[in-house]
Amino acid sequence: MSHNELHPLLRRDYLKWMGAAGLAASGVSAHAQSAWPSKPIRWIVPFAPGGTSSIVARTMANELTKQMGVSIIIDNKGGGGGVPAMQEMMRTPADGYTIVMSHIGLMAVNPLIYPDSGYDVNKDFVPVTLLSRVPSLFVVHKDVPVTDLKSLIAYARARPGQLNYASAGNASAGHLAMEALKLATGMFITHIPYRGTGPALNDVLAGRIQLLSAGTPALLPHIKSGALRCLATGTTERISILPDVPTVTEFGFKDFEAVQWYGITARAGTPPEIILKLQQECAKALKSPDVIAKNAAESAIPGGGTPNEYAAFIAKEQARWKEVVIKGQIKPG
Question: What percentage of the chain's residues is helix, strand, coil (to nearest 5)?
């Protein structure tokens, strides 16, 4: 990749770094940068443990730790729609030793609903790579007397406002998926936000909340055990691990798609060669047998693209979800 192909922020820093590297002949060395990583890397995950983001991060962190020879330490920082996690990132040096798990809420929705967060996701951060896209599933507690999306719609319409759905928090992927479903179907279901999929899932499993949308990694064990019933998937086609579960579009809601995605983002100003090294290490990890098996077991689509490709993907998602945020009147909680 030439420097002209880099994301604009990366290109600016690349040129700055090249200027600094040119000073090496006069005794100023860029060795500290080229030696990266020489100590553990902190990976901030903006949700409580137990959800899809933590599962994706843990799988990748294990592989990256083996590859890179330094520990990748997961730091769960839930709550506030991920804003506190990003504010924490803003307080760290732009040296590649702190990265954040970026996702649909952080990158595509928060800029619309948290305009006073103190940072701009497109200016203060740089994309590293997309890690995976995970199918969103729509599930109910086993005691809710519905068998598919059609019967849920009828059940909910007969009880407007009486059903509740849990999410990992405002602007989380599950919140957006359920609001998109509500807009498509006309159901009136009340949102109950939590500090992560783990806590939300616990209350659905206990029967205190009726519905939930989350990714395959967190939900599959409970669907297989019978504790939860999967009514539909948010994918455009049925997924191999749940071949009998229809998509939302199969129920007549054309062009419906709700897929969670996860990637890595760093601070703007991080040396471009560190960004590219991290992206290359992630691409390698995504091809490892353990990660391939994990993705296949959860019908997740692996990422691994360049920083520029991730930037383009984020821009597309920002445009796509703006309508849901506005029509669903999604506000900070």
Answer: 45, 20, 35
